[in-house]
TrEMBL record, chain A:
It comes from Pseudoalteromonas luteoviolacea DSM 6061. InterPro entries: AAA+_ATPase, ABC_transporter-like_ATP-bd, ABC_transporter-like_CS, ABC_transporter_ATP-binding, P-loop_NTPase. The lineage of its organism: Bacteria, Pseudomonadati, Pseudomonadota, Gammaproteobacteria, Alteromonadales. PANTHER family: ABC TRANSPORTER ATP-BINDING PROTEIN. This is ABC transporter domain-containing protein. Keywords: ATP-binding, Nucleotide-binding, Transport. One of its GO terms (molecular function) is ATP hydrolysis activity. Residues 5-228 form the ABC transporter domain. It comes from the Bacteria.
Automatic annotation (TrEMBL), chain B:
This is Transport permease protein. Pfam families: ABC2_membrane (PF01061). It comes from the Bacteria. The lineage of its organism: Bacteria, Pseudomonadati, Pseudomonadota, Gammaproteobacteria, Alteromonadales. One of its GO terms (molecular function) is ABC-type transporter activity. Belongs to the ABC-2 integral membrane protein family. Residues 24-249 form the ABC transmembrane type-2 domain.
Amino acid sequence: MDWAVNLEQVRFSYANKAAIRGITSQLRSGCIYSIIGENGAGKTTLIKLLLGRLSPASGQISVLGHEPGATEVKNDVGAMLQVGALPNNVRVIEFIKLFQSYYNAPMSWQGALQLAELERQKLTFFGELSGGEKQRLLFCLALIGNPKLVFLDEPTLGMDVHMRRRLWARIVQLKQKGTTVILTTHNLHEVESVADEVLILRAGEVVAQGTPSQLKENLQRSELRFLSDYEEEKIRALLPSFTVHKEGNQVYIATDDVPQVISLLHQHNVVMKELSVSPLSLTQTFMDITRGELP
Amino acid sequence: MKSTVYTLFLETKLDLLSALRTPSFAVPALAFPVLLYLFFGIFMVQDRPQDSVEISTYTMVNYMVFGLMAPSLFNFGAHIAQERESGWLELKLISPMPATYYLFAKCLSAVTFTLSISMLLFLFAGSLGNVKLELFQWVLLLLLAVVGTVPFCLLGLILGLKYSAKAASAITNLVFLPMAMLSGLWLPIFLMPTFMQQFAWVLPSYHLSQLGLASVGLGQGYSALFHLFALFLMSTIFLFTAVALYKKRGVS
């Protein structure tokens, strides 16, 4: 098997606080992986370890067959990080030509502009770009060296719906070209349709890894949905052993015993409108896996 | 990487362009030393024909040192702190470009400022101040300015790596202005109270200005070798401190 990334018992701590607790995982070449987890779960630390920006306290990491951050690897790795700001008074084309000069076999600057859909903004200063345009420029800078492995940290942040769809399509095209993509995002609906595998991180550990459907099947649970004015906290109090989530008036409950949940809610006079039952979504799976007290 | 020279050229060009497109940085950096020189080194001494040329030469050297300090300290101090915090430096560090290119380009950018300021000062000194030096003395001064940029770049790097963006900007100012004053760049050092004169021994700007003055025949007593050694020693201390901070910050 051709592994793009291999982690063996990797541990890392900030001062005395463990951030990564013995992660062992293999990521195949040419696949799209999504690392998901709550804030502070260790996603950014893991990416920094894979990029060689942090060194593990113990364990082994191999990226494209080398140590992370090694000169041999850097030419084949691209990264789109959550950057606060690039210098505001530098033009789009200037960033592109500069990054192009870093790599052995970069794409043309015209190709890079096309990829970012920033042809018309090529002379625009970074400070004058919209949030979505800035993200597209960062995306293009990550890919300008034609990498074999690319890290995308929240790539669709600040993008409109149309742009998000086009970006996900581009990510799928990368996979078709054989590029390994490792991404983090909070948009689990979108991940579900593009990711080959999902790694769920919780308190520095991989608590689940598999295809989105494997993760959902393993839980063998369903999602109960209905509209209700009842407060989320009150529903939670009625169903302490189930994962309850409410967005607006829409209530989502992950359960392996739909009749019991309905019966319980009914007993407490919870009015349920537009009730439906469906297989668990990745969002609910994620919430179900990561609920409970942290270690 | 395509070519080291091409990447360095682009890095330097972008750093320079970014600095020049920031008027709040570029205008004072270029204009202040020249305006101060025109005022104190030329117009204020016009009624002293007996020593006006000597004063014009003395102030030219001191404002040259004053002029090279600001771009070196601020381009490294405040700008590196900003670029580190914003993540711009991080993006470069994960690329195949060696981190040394980034620093070298910043140094070249500071040297370009130094050369521009020095040439402007030389132009006014030669034309309006009647400063007359041998060709080798002009060249020597220019060389001193270029080499003298290095310790201030290193000091700026220490500030940029140690402090946050906001703090680095304020602290660089706190270092820059007193250092210029206590080195005698604004007011001849012998006119200061004795206890204030003692600070100059530990300031690179003092030793650089004394080297400059010695090269135009206005040395104030100590040998040029002594000042050269002091400057070298300070640069070495700055270099080791910067390297230690550099490793601590993971900038490698």
